[in-house]
TrEMBL record:
Belongs to the amino acid-polyamine-organocation (APC) superfamily. Spore germination protein (SGP) (TC 2.A.3.9) family. Its main location: membrane. NCBIfam families: 2A0309 (TIGR00912). It is a multi-pass membrane protein. InterPro entries: Spore_GerAB. This is GerAB/ArcD/ProY family transporter. The keyword Transmembrane applies. It comes from Cytobacillus dafuensis (Bacillus dafuensis). The chain crosses the membrane at residues 12-30, 42-62, 83-110, 122-140, 147-165, 185-207, 219-240, 270-293, 305-322, 334-354. The keyword Transport applies. Keywords: Germination, Membrane, Transmembrane, Transmembrane helix, Transport. GO terms for biological process: spore germination.
């Protein structure tokens, strides 16, 4: 019997988990951020960011393939020893907690600003916490099924962005390369930030049933995310003029607000539900990885007891801090710098280190 049979996930669930961690509430402001940096050429930065994420993802999976039945905790302890290995796991723990918190707060601020302005923020986080507790405490298999279900429920959502295009103009995209490569490069960091999430594959890989499809799965997931971001960004660029789009903080919501159906009066309520489903996948997966790290550090096989503690901290922090957009942007800036190291630099360095380590071990015992 395999060590992780109870929590095994299918290849499609694996793909849905990666997609879920990469697409949170941040896509609502992505077109505006890119337009501020590179005008209507900002969409090109998404393709470059996708290429970076593909390369880093392959390094990540190739490293995990060397130890197919070991978790990231087991791998780091094997490679770096107990002290340094646990220190790196602690970094992952803090990283996942911060990202889970930021995604939840980002969603909270959108809902508070657009839909529930009079509802206390900690009450909204408390409401978020109830389904989060039920999903996260049951392990990766249930989270994988949830990610798969959300994918099916929201797969129609990108098509919604095509409806307002009849009032847009493709001329807004022309001429291409009008801002130059320097400005496009300036938009690259926000584009790269939008692909964060694939680094959690370190946690998903040991539970994958058919590990031979790991590289293919992560490439498919990254490509789907890239296409989603391209559809959202290009539709916003076509609908809004290049001078106007940078003035909107959440141009995606402004775009969706203009959609009208004769048979449906409150399209914004559907948008709210879709937004909650999409964002919840991301904070749920980061939270699972956080409590997994904490349970491993404390030598506990069951992580379920850590989930309500972490959610309680989130609710308490929201009650005392009352996060604002300005605070969120400051926190996001700092955690994004950390994300560059964890998602893009660490997989490459770890792959190089494991290659040297394995060669040394083989020579020593051959």
């Amino acid at each position: 019997m395999k060590k992780y049979t109870y929590n095994e996930i299918t290849t499609f669930q694996y793909v849905c988990l990666i997609i879920g961690t990469q697409i949170g509430a941040g896509f609502l402001s992505l077109p505006s951020v890119l337009a501020q940096k590179a005008g209507s050429d900002g969409w090109m930065a998404i393709i470059i960011g996708w290429l970076f994420s593909i390369v880093s993802s392959i390094f990540l999976v190739k490293t995990a393939e060397k130890y197919p039945n070991e978790t990231i905790y087991d791998i780091l302890i094997r490679l770096f020893g107990k002290i340094l290995g646990k220190a790196i796991i602690l970094i992952f723990l803090l990283y996942c907690i911060c990202f889970s918190w930021l995604i939840m707060i980002n969603t909270l601020l959108y809902i508070n600003g657009w839909f529930l302005p009079n509802t206390p923020d900690y009450i909204i986080v408390l409401i978020f916490s109830i389904p989060t507790l039920l999903v996260v405490r049951n392990g990766l298999r249930i989270i994988g099924r949830y990610a798969e279900l959300v994918f099916y429920l929201t797969m129609w959502f990108p098509l919604l962005f095509l409806l307002p295009l009849k009032d847009g103009s493709l001329l807004h995209l022309l001429p291409l390369f009008k801002v130059g490569w320097k400005s496009i490069a300036a938009a690259e960091l926000p584009a790269i930030y939008s692909f964060f999430g694939f680094e959690l594959t370190f946690f998903f890989y040991p539970f994958l049933q058919k590990k031979q499809y790991a590289v293919r799965g992560i490439v498919v997931a990254n490509t789907f995310v890239m296409l989603f971001y391209l559809i959202v960004t290009l539709c916003c660029f076509v609908f809004f003029s290049p001078d106007d789009i940078a003035d909107f903080n959440q141009p995606v919501l402004n775009l969706l607000k203009v959609i009208e159906f004769h048979f449906l009066e409150r399209i914004d309520l559907i948008i709210l539900n879709v937004l909650l489903l999409i964002a919840s996948r991301a904070w749920i997966m980061y939270m699972y990885c956080a409590v997994y790290c904490s349970s491993q550090l404390m030598k506990k096989q069951d992580h379920s007891g850590h989930v309500p503690v972490l959610l309680g901290l989130f609710i308490g922090a929201t009650f005392f801090i009352h996060p604002t957009w300005l605070q969120f942007k400051t926190w996001q800036k700092w955690i994004s710098y950390t994300g560059i190291g964890v998602a893009f630099i660490f997989p490459l360095l770890l792959w190089i280190y494991t290659s040297i380590y394995e060669k040394y071990i083989r020579r020593k015992f051959s």
